[in-house]
């Protein structure tokens, strides 16, 4: 039984000590020399420093927070005599781990009202931070980054698609990242340790394409001096990515259909059939259903290929991704070229946001690469951009603009309207927004039609 | 030999990741022969590496440092002495003489592996 007398009345020093040892928040106190006078159990656990080592040392040598130099909350409390509650910061523990924390500070006052020093209470937010990172990871799959709703939907279903063995058809304009998406599906699936073989079907004539895919036997043609395996054989157990499948001839479509139906093929000049064990991912920048209706693409092949279809939206319909992509390309090029470019300035961002990117992400990457040639260090500015971006009428780089975001929105909507012969329904569809949203924005931004 | 110390006033910065000033010192004949200060962007370890390379620094001395910038610095073949504390000039004088980190300059948590030189 607990003696009620022991838990009622004012807290003794011993009881306070027990409470301090039990709580999960780190607590330490300092004197007027900034030396630590007490250090509780949770503080030991969070910092990785024992009480024995901590007591008597300067608080910044033990606490090691990013606030110590410039914004020490305890210093403010000691100077102003008022507490600070829940300031976000991080500390570096003895294992070189950066630990996100929240900090509260207060004066340490004895029972006579005399100030003895300060108290700092800190809470480990590693778990919260880990959850936040997990959430932001939903904007990032393999090498693909996006913040747009259309892409986030794809990211959500990508794990299931990757785990299945179904044939995937990726549709999207040129430069939207179809091959990156195909690689992501391969890398996230059970075939990731086997080869990924990509081939551009639109770039090769039929015979060359067949020899590349199916291989050939010695003597199949004049220069075939020995057997050569094709991509289906080389990718055994892996994935074959057939890019620009919409540009293939009807004859090649028949050969491909046979492989997809029977999982076997015959190398050029061969007589025996060889089995395939590959996953097929196909991609096209054309609308395969339209091609099928125009009898330019076989219906049976269309249904074989179109088991799971992904549509990658053009960049102009996900302009919110431009800053994310720019950051990615700048980091990539810094690493590749050994430069230290810090990013782009506001005018460049506004200029990019007002561009329609017919070449999509590839075009944006090329623009940043162009800027890297001209910019030696610091921040990319308008003078480093290609001429066609700077010479555009009413670009924010040329005209003085008070609000670059507003200017970018006006340009984006005006361009979409011009592209669609000022049909507002079509422009809204082009921009990927509802028509009523477009009407509201036209009114709000004062765009004259 | 050229050393750089991340400093906060006359002290060694407690946290490398939040530091923004470097004290660069040249050591010859066991003495500091020349020293000067320079700034860098604490948000960008890449910027610091650029600065260190520009000033031909061989050894970086700092307080607590997290793993990511530490490995970036080591990848550039720059020696790193971390978890060091105290007065920056006094540390440099004693280091120039003895090439070691005295006990009073070691932060709690200092290990031999923090002295990544020689």
Q: What characteristics describe this protein?
A:
heterodimer, A: 449 residues, alpha/beta, 5-stranded antiparallel sheet, 5-stranded parallel sheet, 22 helices, 18 strands, elongated, B: 118 residues, Nucleotidyltransferase, domain 5, 7-stranded mixed sheet, 7 strands, globular
Could you characterize what this model shows?
Chain B: Residues 9-95 form the Dinitrogenase iron-molybdenum cofactor biosynthesis domain. Chain B: It holds the Pfam family Nitro_FeMo-Co. Chain B: This is Dinitrogenase iron-molybdenum cofactor biosynthesis domain-containing protein. Chain B: It comes from Desulfotignum phosphitoxidans DSM 13687. Chain B: InterPro entries: Di-Nase_FeMo-co_biosynth, DiNase_FeMo-co_biosyn_sf. The complex is a heterodimer of chains A (449) and B (118). Chain A has 22 helices and 18 strands. Chain A is of the alpha/beta class. A 5-stranded antiparallel beta sheet of chain A has the order 2-1-5-4-3, sandwiched between helices. Chain A has a 5-stranded parallel beta sheet with strand order 9-12-15-8-16. A two-stranded antiparallel sheet of chain A has the order 6-7. The radius of gyration of chain A is 32 Å and the shape is elongated. By secondary structure, chain B is an alpha/beta fold. Chain B has a single domain (2-114), classed as Nucleotidyltransferase, domain 5 (2-Layer Sandwich), CATH 3.30.420.130. In chain B, 25% of the residues lie in helices and 29% in strands. Chain B has helices at residues 45-54, 67-75, 88-98; strands at 2-8, 11-12, 21-28, 31-39, 59-61, 79-81, 115-116. In chain B, strands 1, 2, 3, 4, 5, 6 and 7 form a 7-stranded mixed beta sheet that branches. The mean pLDDT of chain B is 88. The chains are: A alpha/beta (449), B alpha/beta (118). At the A-B interface, helix 5 and helix 6 of A face helix 1 of B.
């Amino acid at each position: 039984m607990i003696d009620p007398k022991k838990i009622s009345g004012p807290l003794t020093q011993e009881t306070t000590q027990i409470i301090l040892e039990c709580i999960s928040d780190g607590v330490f106190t300092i004197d007027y020399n900034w030396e630590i006078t007490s250090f509780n159990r949770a503080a030991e656990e969070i910092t990785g420093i024992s009480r024995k080592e901590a007591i008597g040392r300067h608080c910044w040598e033990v606490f090691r927070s990013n606030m110590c130099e410039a914004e020490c909350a305890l210093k403010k409390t000691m100077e102003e005599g008022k507490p600070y509650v829940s300031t976000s910061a991080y500390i570096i523990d003895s294992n070189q781990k950066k630990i996100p924390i929240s900090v509260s500070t207060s004066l340490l006052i004895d029972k006579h009202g005399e100030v003895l020093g300060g108290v700092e209470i800190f809470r480990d937010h590693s778990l919260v931070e880990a959850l936040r990172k997990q959430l932001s990871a939903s904007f990032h799959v393999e090498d693909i980054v996006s913040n747009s709703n259309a892409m986030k939907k794809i990211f959500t279903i990508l794990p299931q698609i990757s785990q299945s063995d179904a044939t995937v058809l990726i549709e999207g304009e040129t430069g939207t990242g179809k091959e990156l998406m195909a690689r992501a599906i391969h890398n996230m699936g059970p075939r990731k340790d086997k080869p990924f073989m990509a081939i551009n079907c639109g770039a090769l004539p039929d015979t060359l394409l067949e020899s590349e895919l199916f291989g050939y036997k010695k003597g199949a043609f004049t220069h075939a001096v020995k057997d050569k395996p094709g991509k289906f054989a080389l990718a055994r157990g892996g994935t074959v990515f057939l890019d620009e499948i919409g540009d293939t001839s009807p004859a090649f479509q028949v050969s491909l259909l046979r492989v997809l139906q029977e999982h076997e093929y015959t190398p050029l000049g061969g007589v025996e059939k060889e089995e395939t064990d590959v996953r097929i991912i196909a991609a096209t920048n054309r609308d395969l259903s339209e091609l099928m209706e125009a009898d330019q693409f076989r219906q049976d092949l269309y249904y074989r290929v179109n088991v799971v279809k992904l549509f990658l939206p053009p960049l102009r319909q996900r302009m919110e991704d431009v800053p994310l992509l720019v950051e990615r390309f700048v980091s990539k090029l810094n690493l590749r070229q050994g430069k230290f470019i810090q990013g782009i300035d506001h005018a460049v961002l506004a200029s990019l946001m007002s561009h329609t990117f017919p070449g999509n992400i590839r075009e944006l990457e090329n623009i940043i690469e162009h800027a890297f040639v001209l910019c030696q260090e610091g921040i990319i500015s308008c003078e480093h951009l290609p001429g066609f971006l700077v010479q555009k009428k009413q670009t924010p780089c040329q005209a003085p603009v008070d609000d670059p975001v507003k200017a970018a929105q006006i340009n984006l909507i005006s361009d979409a309207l011009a592209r669609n012969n000022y049909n507002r329904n079509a422009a809204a569809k082009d921009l990927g927004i509802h028509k009523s949203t477009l009407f509201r924005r036209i009114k709000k931004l004062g765009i004259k039609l | 030999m050229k050393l750089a110390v991340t400093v906060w006033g006359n002290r060694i910065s407690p946290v490398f990741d939040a530091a923004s000033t470097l004290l660069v010192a040249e050591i010859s004949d066991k003495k500091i022969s020349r020293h000067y200060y320079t700034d860098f962007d604490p948000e960008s370890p890449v910027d610091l590496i650029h600065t260190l390379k520009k000033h031909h620094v061989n050894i970086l001395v700092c307080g607590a440092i997290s793993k990511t910038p530490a490995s970036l610095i080591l990848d550039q073949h720059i020696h790193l002495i971390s978890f060091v504390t105290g007065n920056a000039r006094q540390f440099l004088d004693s280091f120039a003489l003895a090439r070691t980190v005295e006990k009073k300059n070691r932060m709690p948590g200092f290990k031999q592996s923090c002295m990544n030189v020689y």
